[in-house]
Amino acid sequence: MRLGRCMALALSLQTGPALAQGWSGALVLASDKVYRGISQSNGRAALLLDVSHGWENGWQLGAGLAAPSYPTLGGEGELSLSGGRQFVLDGDWSAHLGLARYGQLGSAHARALSYHEAALSLAWRGRVRASLAWAPDSTGYLGREQVHDHALTAELSLQQRLTGRWSADAGLGYYKLHGPAAVDYGYASLGLRWADGPWQGSINWINSQAAQRRAAPAPIAGARWVAALMWGF
Fold first, then answer.
1. d(CA 115, CA 112)
2. CB-based contact 217:201 (threshold 8 Å)
C-alpha cells in the first residue's frame, strides 16, 4: 500500500480484480502524513506523488515521493521503489505479492529509518482487503539508540459504497517489532470518501495505541483527523 500512507483506506483498495496496465499515477495533498497510526510529518501537511507501470501478465513497478518525512530528525522526504505481481484468482478475488524499499531523505538520523518490506495481500471485489507485511530492518529505540530488527504488520480494510459518489471506509492494523527494542501496538481508522472521475477526497479519523505502548510519542501517535485530496492520472 505505497500510496495508502495518508489516505490509507481511500487509496489502498482495488476497484476489482482486473489488472492495471500501462502507466498510472496519483498526486495527493494531505493534512498529515500518517502511516500505521503514526504521523511521519509531525502533524504537518504533506504532498505525495506516486507513479507505476503495469503489464498484461500482472507484473508492476512503481516509485513514490513524499515530503516532508520525519522533519524533527532532519528528514526532507521519502523515496519508495517497489515491484510486484498481481494475480486474478477468479471474478471476485485477487492477490498481490510485492517487494519495496522506503528510503528516507535528509539527515543521517532520518536515513537510518529507511527499510525494506515484503508484502502479500488478498482482496475481494475491491471491498475487502487483508494484508501481511514483513520488514527485516525496521527501527526501534533503546533509550535514544536506534535498533534495527524485523517487524510484522497485519491489516484489514473495508470499503462500502453509500450513495452516489460517496463511500465509507474502515480499517484495523497491528504492528509488532521483534528484538531488543520489541514493541507492538494496534491502530484503526474510519472515514468517508468522495470520488468523481480522476478526483478523490477523503476525511479519516485515525487512532492508535502507539503512544500507550511506548512505540511513539503522544504528539505524533494520538487520535487525529486527516483530510486529503487526490488527483489520479
1. 8
2. no
